């Protein structure tokens, strides 16, 4: 075998090896790109899911706060109406005279009593009943 044929053979085998290495490298690059895309898509889905969860929680928080504010407003209005009823009752009661009997050793006497005393006493008792009547 001549030197030229040996060199040609080495050259040919080198080219074949070079092609195999290039193909293997290209396959590895393709595989790496595919894996990177899969990881990126998975990460994207995780991020989207996490952000949707956060947005849903914020939405629920806003809804709860809005409902609470609405209930508080309704309760304040109802309390104002109950207060109005008691004020009107106080006005009506002030037209009548309240007296209580004071019994002492010497005599029994009648003393005028302020209606606020009676209203304060019965307010707690009747407040829930008035609310039921007014608001069902």
What is the structure about, briefly put?
The chain is mainly alpha-helical and 136 residues long. It has one domain. The protein has helices spanning 3-95, 115-135; strands spanning 98-103, 108-113.
Distance between the termini: 114 Å
- Major beta sheet summary: 2 strands, antiparallel
Number of domains: 1
Structural class: mainly alpha
What would you report as the Rg, rounded to the nearest angstrom? Answer: 46 Å
Blueprint (SSEs and pairs):
Elements: H1 3-95, E1 98-103, E2 108-113, H2 115-135
Antiparallel strand pairs: 1-2
Helix pairs in contact: 1-2
Give an overview in words.
With 136 residues, this protein is mostly helical. The chain has helices spanning 3-95, 115-135; strands spanning 98-103, 108-113. Strands 1-2 form a two-stranded antiparallel ribbon. The longest helix is centred in the middle third of the chain and has 93 residues, at 3-95. The protein starts with a helix and ends with a helix.
Could you list some keywords that capture this structure?
rod-shaped; 136 residues; mainly alpha; two-stranded antiparallel sheet; 2 strands; 2 helices
């Amino acid at each position: 075998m001549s030197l030229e044929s040996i060199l040609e053979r080495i050259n040919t085998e080198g080219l074949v090896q070079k092609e195999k290495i290039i193909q293997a490298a290209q396959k590895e690059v393709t595989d790496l790109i595919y894996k990177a895309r899969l990881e990126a898509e998975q990460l994207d889905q995780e991020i989207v899911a996490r952000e949707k969860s956060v947005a849903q929680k914020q939405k629920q928080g806003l809804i709860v706060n809005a409902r609470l504010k609405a209930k508080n407003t309704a309760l304040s209005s109802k309390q104002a109406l109950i207060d109005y009823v008691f004020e009107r009752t106080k006005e009506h009661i002030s037209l009548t005279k309240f007296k209580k009997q004071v019994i002492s050793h010497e005599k029994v006497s009648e003393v005028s009593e302020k209606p606020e005393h009676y209203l304060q006493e019965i307010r707690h008792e009747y407040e829930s009943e008035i609310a039921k009547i007014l608001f069902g």
